[in-house]
Write a structure and sequence with these properties.
Helix content: over 70%
Radius of gyration: 19 Å
Largest sheet: 2 strands, antiparallel
Number of strands: 2
Number of helices: 9
Distance between the termini: 17 Å
Structural class: mainly alpha
Shape: globular
Order of helices and strands: HEEHHHHHHHH
Strand content: 5-15%
Low-confidence stretches: none
Length: 222
């Protein structure tokens, strides 16, 4: 029988993996966003990717470091499976009446393998660092100042994630090198804003789950 805490954990893992994989599938579309007077060029994938860090921090806070690491590994395995599906779909020849021909499919998903590969490496490094930094601050502050560990773990891990994934995509010729600096600055700026904005959201999630499971501040589910 699935317990209530496991049911909630599975829901959080599902949100995490969906955000991770979909962000990689849609990354090739870029758009303009006017934010606080700045005209940003961003991948549509960057809108949903920060959700993964929010969920990681919620799981770390309530379920603990071990469960957060399990979720990260599940994300890696899901990404690899997604990669295999795309490789197989790309390998199979389209019929002459297929609504999506080989060229169109390759145009949309051709760089997905590179994106997923780059994202997996960047994501693994960033998420594992995020979890370690989060629990370092949690231990240091004795479970207090949730806003502090949320932001001090997310911001440096997002910096690393943004840098690594753009570097690998540029090395793979998926994105031209002359776009690297602007995309890095704008992407990281956007992620910092999202990290600050999602602070009230993590407070609401943690407050709800603590009340549901009758946990004290800093306490985790066994």
């Amino acid at each position: 029988m699935i317990t209530q805490n496991n049911r909630i954990y599975i829901i959080l893992v599902s949100i995490f993996i969906t955000s991770l994989i979909v962000s990689n599938l849609i990354f090739q579309k870029f758009f303009h966003l006017n934010l606080l007077g700045f005209n940003l060029e961003l991948s549509v994938g960057i809108i949903f990717y920060p959700i993964t860090f929010l969920v990681t921090d919620v799981v770390s806070e309530i379920f603990g470091k071990h469960k957060a690491n399990q979720m990260v590994i599940a994300g890696i395995l899901s990404s690899i499976f997604c990669l295999l599906i795309i490789f197989l779909a790309n390998y199979l020849d389209a019929t002459n009446w297929s609504p999506v021909n080989n060229e169109t499919f390759n145009l949309v998903f051709g760089n997905t393998a590179l994106a997923v590969g780059a994202s997996m490496f960047a994501y693994l490094c960033a998420q594992l660092i995020d979890i370690r930094i989060y629990h370092f601050w949690k231990k240091l502050t004795k479970g207090k100042y949730l806003w502090l560990r949320n932001n001090l773990s997310t911001i440096p891990s997002q910096f690393l994630d943004t840098f690594l994934i753009l570097l690998l995509l540029c090395l793979g010729d998926a994105i031209p090198w002359d776009k690297f600096f602007n995309l890095f600055i704008q992407g990281f700026f956007f992620k910092i804003l999202i990290a600050i904005i999602d602070t009230p959201i993590i407070y609401l999630c943690v407050f709800y789950l603590r009340k549901k499971f009758n946990l004290k501040v800093g306490e985790e589910l066994a």
